[in-house]
Amino acid sequence: MAELSRATGVSVPMIKYYLREGLLPGGERTSPNQARYGQEHVRRIQLVRAMADYAGLSIADIRTLLEHLDNPGRGLHDQLGAAQKAVTPRREPGEGEQWETAARQAGELIARHGWVQNPDSPAMRTVTGVLLTFAGLGYDGVLARLDEYAEAAARIAEADLAAVAERPDPEKMVELVVVGTSLGDALIASLRRIAQSNASARLFLDAPGEGGGSDGS
Amino acid sequence: MAELSRATGVSVPMIKYYLREGLLPGGERTSPNQARYGQEHVRRIQLVRAMADYAGLSIADIRTLLEHLDNPGRGLHDQLGAAQKAVTPRREPGEGEQWETAARQAGELIARHGWVQNPDSPAMRTVTGVLLTFAGLGYDGVLARLDEYAEAAARIAEADLAAVAERPDPEKMVELVVVGTSLGDALIASLRRIAQSNASARLFLDAPGEGGGSDGS
Predict the structure, then answer these.
(1) Which CATH class is domain A2-53?
(2) B123 to A76: CB separation less than 8 angstroms, yes or no
(3) Nearest 5°: phi and psi at A113?
(4) Closest by CA position to A172, among listed A86, A88, A83
(5) CA–CA separation, A47 vs B138, rounded Å?
(6) Contacts of residue B161 in chain A, CB cutoff 8 Å?
(7) Complex ipTM, two decimals?
(8) For a FRET experiment, which of A32, A35, A42, B170 has its CA 20 to 30 Å from that of B133?
(9) Are strands B28-31 and A34-36 parallel, antiparallel or unpaired?
(10) What is the tens place of the pLDDT at every residue in B43-97?
(11) Interface probe with A: pick from B40, B161, B192, most Cβ of A within 10 Å
(12) Domain boundary assignment for chain A
């Protein structure tokens, strides 16, 4: 177990915690207080850390996801859908006239991009809730640019799926959807902030070099 | 207060909680147990809800952000940077040879897109950590597509800043960076999932209509 800790950078108490929580299968017992761990243990620990650190998932959510990865089944598209569902926050639907208006706008937005989606899916509820909030706060400039966000999302999804389709091993495709989607959100959010600070420097720093704020520290 | 609850859809106990936590200024007292609340209270409640529901921020983080919005100062670029920092998760740096390799790759990635960023910024640490994780898990297909993610992020940031630059009121620009960045992450993540499920249906459902999974429920 000390070796497993060295190989993964995860502390021994944390590895014991993962074992207790059922996130990591036990090693092969070689003596009453020794067990042999293999490469699959190293990889599993990396997966757990990725989902805890970057996707911000709870131990319970991670356990559900790992069970799903260990027991797939069904066609690939359905598997990918179930995997995606697991990394999409659930949302309650709203109500009232303003919610209906925002839901219609969300439906029109995705239709313009040739997409089909159940209006009650968590993703559509989130889009609806965000549009409703932007409208309530008077962010007309953002609402006017929804198609640019959708085109960027389309481009990201094409890259995601191309990477998935390339994998020679179908069971790793599902893993890639789970991990790639969660970590991809963090990656894109960070690249967006880096791009924002550079665009802000270009737009709002009149004199080049003023304040040196463009390093985005 | 009952009226304020109706106008915002937020319950009276929750409004009282916001008042106690200092997220909402008190109303103008009109009698010992009556107070008048105005449009600025409605808007403030919408802001708090947006940050709690979609950005997943804690009450303490929201208080810090609101204080920042109420007391800006400095040049616009610096204000935007401070606002952005508040909506960027903090990350500890890693160490070791693999971390250094990932940090170099992150630096090369942003340089290819013409961006400058302090390698110790939270956003750069996140990019580095994600690249390190992808490499550890053997996701070569994703690593091969980093430039596509960066280009999508560039496009998103251009739309963000264009919306910000359009605002006639500088104090609302900073608010828009805070709220637009947090809610924009949720919007983009959701649009990405909708686009993914549609791309998945196209790629992996051989027979059109098979399973009907493309509605992404």
Answers:
(1) mainly alpha
(2) no
(3) -100, 10
(4) A83
(5) 11
(6) 196, 199-200, 203
(7) 0.86
(8) A35
(9) unpaired
(10) 999 999 888 888 778 888 888 888 878 876 677 788 778 777 777 777 888 888 8
(11) B192
(12) 2-53, 85-215
